[in-house]
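Have a close read of this protein, sequence plus structure tokens, and explain what the tokens say about the fold. Thanks in advance:
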Amino acid sequence: MAKKKTTKSKSETLDYSKYVRWFWMVFLGGILAVVLLFLFASWGFLGEMPDHTKLENPETNLATEIISSDGETLGKFYFDDNRTPIGYEDLPQNIVDALIATEDVRFYDHSGIDGRGTLRAIFKLGSGGGASTVSQQLAKNLFTKQVSENKFGRVFQKIKEWVIAIRLERQYTKEEIIAQYLNIYDFGNNGDGIRSASRIYFKKEPKDLDIKESAMLVGMLKNSSLYNPRRNPVGVKNRRNVVLFQMNKYEFISQSVKDSLQETELDLNYSPESHREGIATYFREYLRGFMKDWAKKENNRKPDGSKYDLYTDGLKVFTTIDSRMQQYAEDAIALHMPRLQAEFDHQNTPDRNKTAPFLELKNSEIKDLMNEHMKRGERWRILKSQGKSDKEIRASFEKPTQMTVFKWIDGKASEVDTVMKPVDSMRYYKSFLRPGMMSMDPQTGHVKAWVGGMNYRHFQYDMVKQGARQVGSTFKPFVYATAIDQLQFSPCDSFPRTPITIEANKFGNPESWTTKNSDGNYSGKQTLKDALASSTNTVTARLINEIGPQPVVEMAKKLGVTADILPVPAIALGTPDISVYEMVAAYSTFANKGVYNKPVMVTRIEDKNGTILYQFTPESKDVLSEEVAYVTVNLMEGVTQAGSGRRLRHSGFDKWNAVYEEIITGYPYELKNPIAGKTGTTQNQSDGWFMGMVPNLVTGVWVGAEDRAVHFSSIHYGQGASMALPIWGLFMKACYADETLDVSDGEFDKPSNLKIDVDCEARDEGDLGSDEDPEDPVDFDF
């Protein structure tokens, strides 16, 4: 009996050994299979894998960044990815803490795969949280973005992520992985990467994010489509609070800090980054053309010979624009234009003007004008490309359509949804007065501010460089400078105000030309300084009669004016069409002691690695002697001392001052420093100009409508001193209030060898008069 029992025990032992062998075979086979699976994945058998080069330089689209002279980002160029990467050193510690606490608390302890987290996910079937490390998430975002819907495909994809994560850990430091992950993630609303997201949601650089802001952005990493702070603020707040809880759990913040922050709102400062929004939109559009032209040139190619892509190659464009001055310029326009427009609209209601906003035009002329504008528009181009006939296209302009239009509401630029016929919307937009403004350092040629209009989304034509308008009396300093250069006239020399006729054919002019003074005053004499200050036409005509129009045209060309100017006497009163861009550069020559500097907008261009691809070369030339330039400036100082620009000096405007100050904050200007300048008003008050200079800043402002038939009915409102000068005054007042700017408030440098007398005492000529009515400041009537 005992023997049989022993035999049975041995049999049972043999059977157990077989199971053990099978266990080890399966176990080791499983390990081998896993190893082989990982090897197959690394060899690319499970799909393409990135090699060393791709790991070193992942293929991500990077936006081109536009940087101001004071180091601020003005905007970006991009198609789909508004991404500008930053280094780990530019991240705040609180966002790193929030990321680690929420996404990968053992990040610094593993080498790409968190074993504990993976096992937990396997045994709990994912109910205890995911096992993806930051490295794995980076691998997924960089190289395996498409999620497979097939379960086996997802497993293979996960294996690839593990392999890539391990490679990334070997390739980069932990800090670099964190930076790359935050740089690659899409936070929604064009917030590609942490820098764009920080600027869009909070209008801050990442390094300035506080704890709750960092927590919100880290919370969005779970799913930025679901946790979108604009569409789902409640869900985002709840998710942010989860991140704060995690930060407290792992002792990155205290319980009291967590509790207090969880009670706060999101406090977004949403600042979208698009091509039509933000600061310096018109300048950025000019820059887009500049960059495209630069990229086309053969000597500006990549090492492999291909062209740089403005939207994906991550270029950095360093500009001369000062973000502070740019903001002050835009603020000045935003403050003045709605008030000016309100007065214009008040004067041009249908009750007062049956053809509003056009003056003097007949209905047939208005119809022709609108038809011409119709054919130049985008709607016509699109419908024409679709094969529509002219008749069908015109009919479409008469069909009421839903649209969003621009409108000043309570003094602010706004948009209104409405239903309007396209033809009526064309007429509506033509009723708006528009500005153009540029500011430049005359010594360097660096353009400091550029505002081509008041709202780029709705008014895309740039009135700084694209638009050229009649310059009126702002052309007169060119005549005076030529006369001083050729005949050595002094500001103290006197000329009669009497009418003058320049006979036909004297300068090749087919007809005789007689000029008049708008105030009808022709008695007595005036010094050149008084004549320029009061913009006396007859004195300017006498000067061009002395020197001839051709030398004046040549002077304008030397000052950088490229427009065709007919050498006829009438140019003395400002008949040529010139852009704000060229006028500012020309006036800068006077402030720069006779040396013309071509305006500079871009100082250098760098690639994404910081390699300099372009550096500007100054272009300058001597145009006038230092003496002539100074005398011309001295003449223009008279404009702000006793002429149409003297309101810049006022501390009050008598009976209407209280009303004016209540309507427009910032008026009066009370500028006491030396200022040289000239106002300009064209025929029928279609264009208002002011060109103003201090020793290290020259600024030009134009205001007018798209069509010259749209204008104020009287010079009381339609002069440069009322339309354009207030923008200049507000801008300069803001610049002087900013102590971080070095805008000169001193005298213009006087040449040591000055021979022309400029220290003459003012001569009493009685009522100077003025073509632009400097004695009558504008009282806006609301």
User: Anything to note?
Assistant: The chain has 27 helices and 20 strands. Residues 361-415 form one domain. Residues 260 and 589 are 60 Å apart (CA to CA). The two ends are 124 Å apart (CA to CA).
